[in-house]
Design goal:
Elements lengths: L1 H34 L21 E4 L5 E4 L6 E6 L5 H16 L4 E7 L3 H11 L6 E3 L1 H7 L6 E5 L5 E6 L3 H13 L4 H12 L1
Parallel strand pairs: 3-4, 4-5
Antiparallel strand pairs: 1-2, 3-6, 6-7
Length: 199
């Protein structure tokens, strides 16, 4: 009897140790994935290219007024494509808010999506997005060939696209601004060019 109790205690200890080990391993894999993720926003080859003029739109905003997408005197624009059902989009909203506050002197941020207005109105209220221009337009997404979310396009005051790409992390969002300042299409292109020059 004592032997059975001892064996059960050992097995319980082994199972707990394996469960803890599995949890630690999964956590380390997640950290490793973040560290080796691609530098910068993931740029796709479809839609208007970096260096081209943005398609121009003047769209009604669900939060009031109109959102102008195109050239603006002394103001650059970040169009951030999102969806009320996208968990990564929701995770990035506080980061987007801090970026808007930090860069508000020269940057306008417009939120864009498509679908039914009622769903977006609830999302605006629940996520407290009433201070952003929020447009719902399938044509806008088609113009930029947005296939996956969240996606962002940054263009300058002349309406020239300076950076764009799929955004999953704060680092990828920041990379759009780094590319803007460095006057390169993307951080990945810049790094690829440097490696080609060095080899």
């Amino acid at each position: 009897m004592k032997l059975i109790v001892f064996a059960l205690a050992v097995l319980t200890f082994v199972v707990l140790a394996l469960a803890i080990g599995l949890w630690v391993l999964a956590r380390q894999i997640g950290i490793l994935f973040e560290r080796i993720s691609p530098m910068g926003a993931l740029v796709n080859d479809s839609g208007p290219e970096v260096g081209q003029s943005t398609p121009e739109f003047n769209l009604p905003s669900l939060t009031g007024g109109r959102a102008v997408i195109g050239p603006k005197s002394i103001r650059s624009t970040l169009v951030f494509f999102l969806s009320p059902t996208c968990p990564i989009c929701k995770k990035l909203l506080p980061i987007l808010d801090s970026v808007r506050k930090a860069e508000g002197g020269w940057l306008d941020v417009i939120l864009a999506s498509d679908g039914e207005d009622a769903q977006h109105e609830r999302f605006i209220e629940n996520a407290r997005l009433s201070s952003y221009p929020y447009v719902v337009s399938a044509e806008l997404g088609l113009a930029y060939r947005v296939a996956r979310l969240p996606y962002a396009v940054l263009f300058d005051e002349h309406g020239v696209i300076r950076a764009k790409g799929l955004i999953n992390t704060r680092e990828q969002l920041d990379s759009l601004f780094n590319a803007f300042e460095m006057k390169v299409g993307s951080i990945q292109t810049y790094l690829d060019h440097r490696m080609a020059v060095q080899s």
